[in-house]
Amino acid sequence: MSFEDILRDIRAKRFHPVYFLHGEEPFFIDRIAEAIEDHALPEAERGFNQTVLYGKDTEPMPLLDTLRRYPMMAERQVVVLREAQDMKGIADLASYLEKPMASTLFVLCYKHKKLDMRTKFGKALMEKALVFESKKLYDNQVADWIAGYCKSKKLGIEHAASALMAEYLGTDLSKIANEVDKLALNLPAGSTVSEANVQEYIGISKEYNTFELQKAMAGRDVAKMARMVHYFAENIKKNPLIPTIASLYGFFSKVYTLHFYVGKTDAEQVKALELRSEWFLKDYKLALRHYSQAQCEHILGLLHEYDLYSKGVDGGQPEEELLKEMIWKMLHTA
C-alpha cells in the first residue's frame, strides 16, 4: 500500500493488527505512526490503552507480555515501538506474529534503514503485517513533493518557489513540511505560494541563495556572482560552504552529462538529467554554452578538492576565504 492509501485507511478506522514501517526516510514513518495514535483510540482511552516504547530501552519478553494483555474497558490497545532498529532481539517477536492479538494494534517504527525481508523475521512480517518501506526521495522529486504537500494544506505553489525551496532545504522532508506548515499558517487557504512568500515567511533570500548562484554561474554573470559571493562570505553561517559545494557539484554534474546529449530532444535531455520538466532545462542549456566538457571536468575536480578543504583536509582557511578562492578558480578555468 502507498503512504496515502495507508493514511486513508487509518482515517477511516480500517486498521491492521501489525504495522511494520521501515526505510531510510523517517518522515513517512512518523506520519503513519502519528495518524494511528490520533485515530485508533479516543483521547479518553489513551492513558490506559496506548503504550509508546523505544527500541534501545525495550526487551522482547516484556514487550510480548504488553502485546498479549487485554485493553482496559476499550475495544483495543495500541502499542508503538519507536526506533525499533535499536532493539536487541527484535527477531524474537516473530512468535507474536504467528498469532497476533485481535485487540492489540502493534506499530513498529524501524528507521533510517531497511530490514532484510529475507530473514525469518522479515518473512513473518511480510506474511502477517502491513509492511511499508519508506524510501528517500531523489533530488529531482522534491519540488513535486513540495507541490503535493502544499496542495494537502490547501495551497498552490509556483514552479520557481518550489524549486527554490527544494534547492535550499534539500531532501529533509520533515524540515520541508515544517516550512510549508509555516506558510499555511500565514497565507489564506487557496493562495498560491510565490518566491516572495518563501523569502518572507521561510527566510530564503530570493536573490542570495545557491539556486540563484547556479543561475549566475550558468550565464557567467560575473557582476551578479561577485555580489552573491560577497553576501555568502559575509553570512557564512547562513550559507555554509559544504552545502554550497554539494549544490554546485550537482549542477555541474548535470551540465557535464548534458554534453553527451547535445542534439537530443528536450524530453531525452530531461530524462537523462532526471529533471522534473523541461522548465528546469534552460539553466543547464545556458551553462552548456559557457562551459566546455573539459571545463566541467575541471570544475568538478575543484569542487571535490574544496570539499576536502572545507572538512579540514590540508588546510585551515576560513570557509569564506575558501569560497572566494573556489569560485574565482571555477570562473578562470581553462
Structural overview:
The chain is α/β, with parallel strands linked by helices. The protein folds into three domains: 132 residues, 3-Layer(aba) Sandwich (Rossmann fold), CATH 3.40.50; 64 residues, Helicase, Ruva Protein, domain 3 (Orthogonal Bundle); 122 residues, Zinc Finger, Delta Prime, domain 3 (Up-down Bundle), CATH 1.20.272. Helices cover 55% and strands 10% of the residues. The protein contains 17 helices and seven strands. The strands form two sheets. The protein has a five-stranded parallel β-sheet with strand order 2-3-4-1-5, sandwiched between helices. A two-stranded parallel ribbon has the order 6-7. Strand 3, helix 5 and strand 4 form a beta-alpha-beta unit.
Overall mean confidence score, pLDDT: 93
Q: Ranges with pLDDT <50 over ≥5 residues?
A: none
Question: Major beta sheet, specifics?
Answer: 5 strands, parallel
Order of helices and strands: HEHHEHEHEHEHEHHEHHHHHHHH
Q: How many strand segments?
A: 7
Strand order of the largest sheet: 2-3-4-1-5
Short description:
By secondary structure, the chain is α/β, with parallel strands linked by helices.
